[in-house]
Design brief:
Length: 231
């Protein structure tokens, strides 16, 4: 098997001949001679012309014209009418190594797709299944404190509620001089009739004596602080 076009061109170049000269000798137009060298057989109008041109052109160059015609017939198939355009014979089946390379490429591509999908599913599952943690702010109301009141200088009317005035009643009545009452709650609302008679023992043991506060008083106690509303 040899290349028709290159073989013709090399022979013409060796002889230093031009297309116009060869056209006069062969009576074949230069464009067709050039088409034979370029194997552009679609340019030539019919199969018979192509075979004839090949035979004449090869013989003129001192080559075996029949050999070129046979090579042309072995390499190209034509339509039933014998006219151009020509169709090349089907290419050979791919080699075993080519098939192996193609199979490996397919496997690698599928593996890459699988990895990407797995990463995507993992990321999606992580975002959807991860429990949402809600932080709960700490509040002083969640703490329980202990408050003790003592009637130091006389009897005192006491009204004590958990939370606020509308909360649960912890004590309601008269606290006799010398007696104490202890309350435990997260927040206390206490009203006394005579603040000057009370000593308040706060959480931690700190005492507050309100002997200078005369008359009724309302006090709100929360962890770490207390507030006199009126006195």
């Amino acid at each position: 098997m040899f290349e028709i076009g290159n073989s013709l061109r090399e022979a013409r170049d060796r002889q230093g001949r031009s297309f116009p000269d060869l056209e006069r000798k062969t009576q074949i137009r230069s464009r067709y001679l050039r088409a034979l060298e370029e194997e552009d057989f679609d340019t030539i109008p019919a199969l018979a012309y192509t075979r004839g041109f090949l035979r004449v052109y090869a013989n003129e160059l001192g080559l075996d014209g029949q050999l070129y015609v046979d090579e042309f017939n072995s390499r190209f198939a034509v339509s039933e009418e014998g006219n151009a355009p020509f169709r090349r014979r089907e290419s050979r089946a791919p080699s075993r190594r080519s098939r192996q390379i193609a199979s490996l490429a397919v496997v690698l591509a599928l593996g890459t797709i699988g990895v990407v999908l797995a990463l995507f599913v993992a990321a999606f599952s992580s975002n959807t299944s991860k429990p949402q943690t809600v932080s709960r702010p700490s509040s002083k109301l969640a703490q329980t404190m202990t408050l003790k009141i003592t009637a130091m200088r006389g009897d005192v009317s006491v009204e004590a509620h958990s939370g606020n005035q509308g909360g649960g009643l912890l004590f309601g009545g008269t606290l006799v001089k010398g007696h104490s009452q202890t309350f435990r709650a997260a927040r206390l609302w206490i009203k006394v009739s005579a603040a000057q008679n009370i000593r308040w023992t706060l959480p931690g043991g700190t005492s507050v004596d309100t002997r200078n506060r005369f008359g009724p008083a309302t006090v709100i106690f929360t962890p770490g602080e207390h507030t006199f509303l009126r006195g």
